[in-house]
Design a protein that fits this description.
Number of strands: 18
CATH class of the largest domain: Alpha Beta
Bound molecules: zinc ion
Oligomer: single chain
Largest sheet: 9 strands, mixed
Length: 458
């Protein structure tokens, strides 16, 4: 048997959702022991030290000990956009896409795809995320692009569900090439312990009917990751082109099921939400990105009350999941003008991320600190100065933990971050490389025309 390690001296929270009454949720002087990739035991530190007297010890220094965080919607390819000036201010969401994202993605090559992914994975680790759902686009380099993203995830040591963002905006042949890349990657990664595939779709308004039909020929059980109702543009342009709303199109194509992730879900109607709930699909809330793009905010409580499962993502804005949780909480209060809003449905977001992620991996205990679970564990450098108990975990996560740097991050028992220092990736070296490659990337972006039509040509 391989050697065991105890991580202790912290306030341990076993799960992001309230467990059954018989199970402990908060352990004030808690510890977790693991061996290889699996957790052996969770409990009081004194008990674990007795049970595993020869174990190594890792010190949480009085901070939080939590399950590794899960991010349901990210775009690693956005890493080198920070600071880029698209030329003129965007007047609406269509111009944000057209001037920035639909030129950046076309300018990416193999080198910048890999580097962007490595930069984002390093950020995920820095902010305690050990499982991430990425949505990748690089129309000039489609075939094999997911292998490059997977290489970064592999090097970093986290888990990922990766997909290529299929769209007709660069022509139908590019859409078919995107589908083929998703299917190839799904086949290749089938059964992989940490890195899986899904079928990625951009958004209804840039997808032809024949593309949706082709995407629906995916292998049984393959998930679908798509933007829906991010801005009113999606519904308006989709209805104009196809006479149906975005969610209804997905449903008719057979793509709406319990492994379907709908990023944003803001500009949808009651019938759409009831379709989503009926099929057990998930909406992924991205509050920071929504604020940045000025597209409105998702009323999580309202949507959850209609039976939809709502999870949380960062949409390429950052990799900090707990900060996104805080942003979601503040957006809810600001949007509803209600100082009591936010607990309840928002307290379910991180637990919903766990439930959704489990559908993509053969890991019924993923996202939980429990014997037999994958050893995905993070510690936060927060002092927890006030009592942490079952009734106030969410409040602590929002007001305290969301601001705390991550001290240690482990995935499948492997230390990725030890006392704030990366063990698998070197962010300083990645930043040097990024500064070397970015000027040429930005030059390529500026050389590309804007004015991409939503449904392209052949
Ligand atoms: Zn997105």
């Amino acid at each position: 048997m391989s050697e065991s390690t105890i991580l202790g001296n912290g306030t341990l929270v076993t799960s992001y959702s309230r467990p059954s009454a018989a199970q402990a949720w908060v352990i004030p002087s808690g510890a977790v022991a693991w061996s290889g990739e699996r957790i052996l035991a969770v409990g009081e530190e004194t008990e674990l030290r007795c049970a595993y007297p020869k174990a190594n010890f890792l010190d949480a220094q009085g901070g939080w000990i939590l399950p590794g965080l899960i991010n349901l919607h990210h775009h690693f390819y956005s890493s080198l956009a920070c600071g880029f000036d698209p030329g003129m201010p965007a007047r609406d969401f269509a111009e944000v896409l057209d001037r920035l994202w639909w030129r950046l993605d076309r300018a990416l090559d193999a080198e910048t795809i890999l580097l962007s992914a490595e930069l984002s994975v390093a950020e995920c680790i820095r902010w305690g995320c050990t499982t991430v759902f990425d949505h990748h686009a690089s129309p000039a380099h489609i075939a094999g692009s997911l292998d490059l993203v997977a290489q970064a995830v592999e090097r970093g040591g986290i888990s990922g569900v990766l997909c290529y963002e299929v769209s007709d905006r660069n022509g139908h042949r590019a859409a078919l090439a995107g589908i083929e890349e998703n299917l190839r990657f799904l086949r290749k990664q089938s059964g992989h312990a940490r890195i899986r595939g899904a079928v990625g779709l951009h958004a209804s308004f840039t997808l032809r009917d024949e593309t949706l039909e082709e995407a629906a020929r995916r292998p049984a059980g393959a998930g679908c990751h798509v933007h829906a109702g991010e801005d009113k543009l999606d519904g308006e342009a989709t209805r104009q082109a196809f006479g149906l709303g975005p969610v209804e199109r997905l449903e008719r194509a057979g793509l709406l099921d319990e492994r379907c992730l709908l990023a944003h879900g803001i500009h949808l109607d009651a019938e759409d939400y009831s379709r989503i709930a009926r099929h057990g699909a998930a909406i992924v809330h991205n509050p920071e990105s929504n604020a940045n793009n000025g597209v409105g905010w998702l009323d999580v409580a309202k949507v959850a009350a209609q039976g939809c499962r709502v999870g949380l993502g960062t949409d390429g804005m950052s990799s900090a999941v707990l900060r996104a949780l805080r942003a979601a909480f503040l957006a809810q209060r600001a949007g509803r003008k209600d100082p009591s809003a936010g607990f309840g449905a928002l307290a379910e977001l991180l637990g919903n991320n766990v439930a959704v992620a489990r559908r993509f991996f053969d890991e019924p205990l993923l996202g939980e600190l429990a014997p037999g679970a994958p050893a995905d564990i993070v510690t936060l450098d927060a002092r927890c100065p006030t009592p942490v108990e079952a009734g106030n975990v969410f409040s602590h996560l929002v007001y305290d933990a969301s601001e705390a740097p991550v001290r240690h991050a482990l995935a499948r028992g492997r230390l990725l971050l030890r006392d704030f220092v990366h063990e698998t990736l070197d962010p300083a070296a990645l930043a040097v490389r990024a500064r070397e490659l970015t000027p040429a990337l930005w030059q390529r972006i500026r050389a590309l025309e804007s004015g991409t039509s939503f449904l392209g040509g052949d």
